[in-house]
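Hi,

I'm pasting everything inline rather than attaching a file, because the server keeps stripping attachments. The sequence lines come first, and each chain or strand is labelled.
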Amino acid sequence: MSPRAIHNFSAGPAMLPKAVLERAQAELVDWQGRGISVMEMSHRGADFTAIAEKATNNLKELLDVPDGYSVLFLQGGATLQFSMAVLNLAKQDSIADYVVTGSWGRKAHAEARRFCEARIAALTQRPSEPIPDVSQWSISPEAAFVHYTPNETIDGVEFHDVPDIPPSIPLVADFSSSILSRPVDVSRFGLIYAGAQKNIGPAGLTVVIIRDDLLSEVRSGVPDLMTYRVHAASGSMKNTPPTFAWYLAGLVFEWLIEQGGLAAMAIRNQEKAERLYRALDQSDFYTAPVPSTCRSRMNVVFRLVDADLESTFLQEAEGAGLMALKGHRSVGGIRASLYNAMPLAGVEALVEFLGAFEARYG
Amino acid sequence: MSPRAIHNFSAGPAMLPKAVLERAQAELVDWQGRGISVMEMSHRGADFTAIAEKATNNLKELLDVPDGYSVLFLQGGATLQFSMAVLNLAKQDSIADYVVTGSWGRKAHAEARRFCEARIAALTQRPSEPIPDVSQWSISPEAAFVHYTPNETIDGVEFHDVPDIPPSIPLVADFSSSILSRPVDVSRFGLIYAGAQKNIGPAGLTVVIIRDDLLSEVRSGVPDLMTYRVHAASGSMKNTPPTFAWYLAGLVFEWLIEQGGLAAMAIRNQEKAERLYRALDQSDFYTAPVPSTCRSRMNVVFRLVDADLESTFLQEAEGAGLMALKGHRSVGGIRASLYNAMPLAGVEALVEFLGAFEARYG
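And the predicted assembly:
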């Protein structure tokens, strides 16, 4: 064990709950007396089938997924969903409307343009711009779907509410970095996807929640494993799924239920984010650029007013056990990711460090 | 720990070397004193980059991969490669020749037909048929590639040598269930792919080895993450890779090097398979249908002459700690998978059980 407390602010792959890792460790070589690891189980055997089913049901319970939706456990990350969503929901000549409020939305739109007429329905150019109200979005009545990114991991921009678009148009969301951070009304969505490596489990797993009427095939020439219908019909076992990642996600879901579910996580995440933003706002030494109406509770992005001090800041933070605070390579600055697994103590340690660093260099 | 010895003959996800699992367990919560798990590391950080690089280099060393090839660590399993290989190597109107010697080759061909003119260059209808000599294959001189399955996991059919096709045509192989089981001359191939969950590591990782001149894009409309060139250019980090699976694969590679590399594994695997086939051939109670010229050393498929006894056989085998011997649901019978991690002691225990069961019921 490391002698000092480590707080890992990585944006993803991110920290996992200690209790989950310890349980995974305890049963890594011998799962529940079977004499083998979960990794060594046939995905079609009774043991793994039970693990997979329990995880799926717990996720449905946590998110209160209504009837008429399928929950899939896939591979390829959210980035593969950029194309897969389009290939399954839109034809080559369909219009799809993208709301771009940061780097991931921009990437999703760029990939979509190769497979349909992907338009920009709303756009912010920088994190300091407020997200335009949905009344100002230019949504085409005939759009195959509207896509948005509820939380922009790199830019620290988050929708605080689900946008109210015409109910006839499926709403598609890349929920990678805020899924499970608070309750969400799944019935508002046609398709939700999320890479696991922030709030769900290890990298290499993608959760998809899709309304069953969207499980049709709208175009030909889509690979079997890029087709939602194929995965839904096979219980995500058309081919061998990432079994160990699925199992770990299941442990995270159990942990979330023990914590009181998403209502409890929402309160805790709110408290963590407020604590950090308050410290940043109270200081003239740091600056948090995102307007308060769309600040992310998962990824708190900030800068030192004296940008030359940032590398010293990061180095001394690491010395204090505060790891992976460097902003994304595309934007620089500082970023503290406060996913579900981050305890309040981690935020308190960071806030304390912010004050001490300012006292030394401010 | 389970009190009795367990031998896990699962065809995949399959058993892993005990030493690998124990090492993964020891460092699961705290990797090398960093205070965090490998699962919690940014894939772009120095620690994970070193893990990934070491795994890649060790795999290259084990397979003696020549210069001019790229080694990729992807997601989606071999099944996703069924389409990806075609989308990257063939145009819609290209001919691709498939050699089908079992269930997986058949599936690969069926998927390929959707994306090019995929022909059958050679075919066996059942495992008892010898693989036709390459001189009898009908290979089109203009074929974009020739695809075959060196080892058919379900049918227990294995090529004992790399087929000698015209060197101008890239040879493509689904090596999922026999990669790393013995040395192979990679320079004979244009593209090798393999799902990890048999001889490499946990499910959710796919290894691709591709000759660099094949990294071009031959058609448009292929998703970014389905493009080999994109993965090769980014060191398999176009998006977040399955980091923990990659790390575990690296532990398996280290273990293989410690065992003496693939030459040593080949001797051991040969001995294991011979031991089992000999026991089956010496008995009139069991029957191994595959001709000796193409018997798999990885998946030993056999039947009880009295098929009604098979469920009793499987039940009593489990009672003796011999797990997952049931043949694939599509073909029935018995299958013992003897991948690298299976020790000779496991085969000896199975051989002993074969004799004892025959003595009781024969």
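Chain B has a mean pLDDT of 97.

If the labels don't parse on your end, tell me and I'll reformat.
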